[in-house]
Design brief:
Ribosomal Protein S5, domain 2; Alpha-Beta Plaits; eight-stranded mixed beta sheet; 11 helices; binds adenosine-5'-diphosphate; binds magnesium ion
């Protein structure tokens, strides 16, 4: 069954009537620019061909009910009771978005309630941002259904606010921007300070290239531990160097940074500063020389995350090294780190070779079998029916 028919069917099964509409939003893969978003820097993700759908039905009262194929429960809340603390668990994402729309000025006093049913083929916790796919699908669905008229950059901020305040994960704006602004065969080059976004053709298919995702299945937890610690290090580094954010530093400033900072903070700073430069280099190289030229930036990004930012894990390193050793143009871990996925840019003909080699290497190390699949740059959030 196609995703729209399936979303309508699942809605009808759960709520006993047909939905009024179906919206969807994609997950994303970050080509390059890791942990730069909350440092006001540059990122270059693209929306992928895996999506979260939201089927929406009107109600006569002011309840919002949310259900997902991932969960047996239907969670409900009165619109007047929306608040950052009103709900926990997965329902914090959709209900958090409803609350956040109000924070951005939507007049929710007169809208009617809705029933939402959520379905998705975005793998959860694989570094492909199932969370942003969910937020953005719900944000666009509620915006259009309620006639709120927000533009997409604002809806991205709505999703981020929901994730930051209601879910409690201190994430940046990248994921939501990719999910809302992505286009077919293009990446979203985003300046996280100005929020200026440039949609840049990738031309992977035209160059005979595929982007392989290697999901290590190693669990990561964004909202805890490592992520918050890295963020704190970046803030401490910026403070010690007298800049508003690490965005304000350039590669030429690193010698001074090394004198001022302790070794660990310096390495955290060096990752962010060089990663920003690598994003700029990637975009320029892509424009000037095509997709086949961006490998060295991907490879260097991985080394920086492994050694300076220290957010890789052995499974990610093995995935990257095996892909590189078997002919990948470039490879790196992607996402927040501590697990999740690696990506490899690969000549089409080598996809089966690298898939097999990575699988074999994982087996040899006694690691859990990874999920390996290609992703294609796809259209951002949209109404499907
Ligand atoms: P990811 O890297 O996939 O974004 P996160 O931990 O940020 O990982 O977000 C995953 C969480 O988002 C899940 O644990 C769940 O709470 C919620 N989520 C994502 N997709 C769905 C879905 N289709 N249905 C219900 N909850 C979902
Ligand atoms: Mg997430």
């Amino acid at each position: 069954m196609d995703p729209v028919a399936s979303a309508e069917h699942l809605f009808a099964e759960r709520y006993g009537r047909r939905p009024a509409g179906v919206w969807s939003a994609p997950g994303r893969v970050n080509l390059i620019g890791e942990h730069t978003d909350y440092n006001d820097g540059f990122v270059f993700p693209f929306a992928i061909d895996k999506r979260t759908t939201v089927a929406l039905g009107d109600r006569d009262d002011r309840l919002i009910r949310v259900a997902s194929t991932f969960s047996p429960d239907v969670v409900e809340l009165h619109i007047d009771e929306l608040s950052p603390d009103a709900v926990s668990g997965w329902a914090a994402y959709p209900l958090g978005v409803a609350w956040a729309l109000g924070e951005f000025g939507a007049d929710l006093a007169h809208v009617r309630g809705v029933d939402l049913h959520i379905d998705s083929d975005v793998p959860v916790g694989a570094g492909l941002s199932s969370s942003a796919a969910l937020e953005c699908a719900v944000a666009l669905a509620l915006d259009e259904h309620w006639g709120l008229g927000f533009d997409r950059p604002t809806l991205a901020k709505v999703g981020r606010l929901a994730e930051n305040r209601v879910v409690g994960a201190p994430t940046g704006i990248m994921d939501q921007s990719a999910s809302l602004l992505g286009e077919h065969d293009a990446g979203v080059f985003l300046d996280c300070r100005s929020l200026d976004a440039d949609v840049i053709p990738l031309g992977f298919a035209a160059s005979g290239l595929s982007l392989l995702v290697i999901d290590t299945k190693v669990e990561h937890a964004h909202s805890t531990g490592g992520y918050a610690a890295r963020r704190a290090s970046c803030e401490a580094g910026a403070r010690a160097l007298g800049v508003e954010s690490l965005r304000d530093l350039h590669v030429g400033d690193l010698a001074r940074a090394q004198e001022v900072l302790d070794d660990e903070t310096f390495r955290r700073v060096r990752h962010v500063v060089t990663e920003n430069q690598r994003v700029l280099d990637t975009v320029r190289s892509l424009r000037e020389h095509g997709a086949g030229s961006i490998g060295p930036m991907l490879d260097a990004s991985h080394v920086s995350m492994r050694d300076d930012f220290e957010i890789s894990v052995p499974e990610l390193d093995l995935a990257v090294e095996t892909a590189q050793a078997n002919g990948a143009i470039g490879a790196r871990m992607t996402g927040g780190g501590f697990g999740g996925a690696a990506i490899a840019l690969v000549i089409d003909a080598l996809v089966p070779v690298i898939t097999k080699a990575v699988g074999a290497a994982f087996a040899e190390h006694g690691y859990r079998a990874p999920a390996i699949f290609t992703v294609h740059a796809s259209q951002g959030a949209r109404r499907d029916a």
